[in-house]
Amino acid sequence: MYNPDFLLCAFLVYLVAIICVLSKKGTGALKNKIYIAFLIVGELACTFDLVGIVLSNHFPRKLYELRSICFFGYHFFHPLTAFICALFVVEITGRIHEIDKRKIILLLIPLVLFYIPLFLNPAYNTVYYFDANGVYTRAIFMLLEYLAAAFYMGFVLYEIIKYRNSIRKDEAWTISLFIVVTIIGVIIQYFSTTTPTEVFVMSLGSLTVLFTVENRDELYDPVTGLLNRNALMGELQSSISSGIRFHCFGVFFQNYEDISTRLGYVVSDAIEKSVAEYLMTLGKDLEIYDCEDGFFCLLLYHAREARVKEIENALVERFDHPWEMNGYLVPFITSVASYRIPEAVGTLDEIYSMFARRKHHQDEVVKVLQEEDLATFRRDIYVSRAISKGLSHGNFQVYYQPIWDSQNDRIHSAEALLRLYDEELGWISPDEFIRVAEETGSIYDLGEFVFESVCRDIGWRDFKSMGIDFVEVNLSPLQCMRSNLVERFRQIMEEYQVQPNQINLEITETATARSLEMLRSTMLRFQEMGITFSLDDFGTGASNMESLVDLDFEIVKIDKSILWNTKDLSAKGTFLENTIQLLKGSQFKIVVEGVETQEQKAFLESHGCEFCQGYFFHKPASIFDFITYVKKFNKIGEQEHLEEIV
Question: Are 314 and 322 in contact (CB under 8 A)?
Answer without folding.
Answer: no
